Amino acid sequence: EEELVESGGGVVQPGGSLRLSCAGAGFTFDDYPIHWVRQAPGKGLEWLCYISGDGGGTYYADSVKGRFTISRDNSRNSVSLQMNGLKTEDTAFYFCAREGGGFDKWGQGSLVTVSS
Amino acid sequence: DIQMTQTPSSLSASVGDRVTITCRASESISTYLNWYQHKPGKVPNVLIFRATTLQSGVSPRFSGSGSGTLFTLTINSLQPEDAATYYCQQSYTARTFGQGTKVEI
Questions:
Q1: Are residues A39 and B92 in contact, defined by beta-carbon separation less than 8 angstroms?
Q2: Given A9, A114, B33, B68, which is the most exposed site by the fewest CB atoms within 10 A?
């Protein structure tokens, strides 16, 4: 079965850091770009960043550029999101998603809470 | 950055109705437009990609149209299980979601 499994969410203080991971299984991982998307409480979906299948290309939304870094290790079928300088407004569920025809496979979501 | 504007932001309809949601891009995105259904507590589910292509396994009651800057998602014969929030997303450059349309039955 094709799946993405996330890990690494939790509670962090403002200004702190957190690293999310997204592990793929059941498909040829490096065939697909991977994206991160978040949903803050009561809000809509917000696209955050993208990494190409070979890891050579990345792109970020302005809201996280310079604070978040996406990377991937295809030998481990894994993508990571390093989040630095976290703000209270970064509190959200974070999803990784595979892009095939649209975002056709999603991780289950990881809750990140930024609070003092 | 490309902005995506959905209308309406919410709607209420009855079982059996036809519902149309509109998505407008701030600049031309050709047909690089996807539609998602998102139910509370679940992950989003892609319904339509490249403006008109139905994702495998999705009910044919869903259809998409449009190109350039104006797109529509149509739900025919609305069913109770269609209650959800629907998002458009452009994939022309970077990615951007619309603000969502909540559909109540």
A1: no
A2: B68
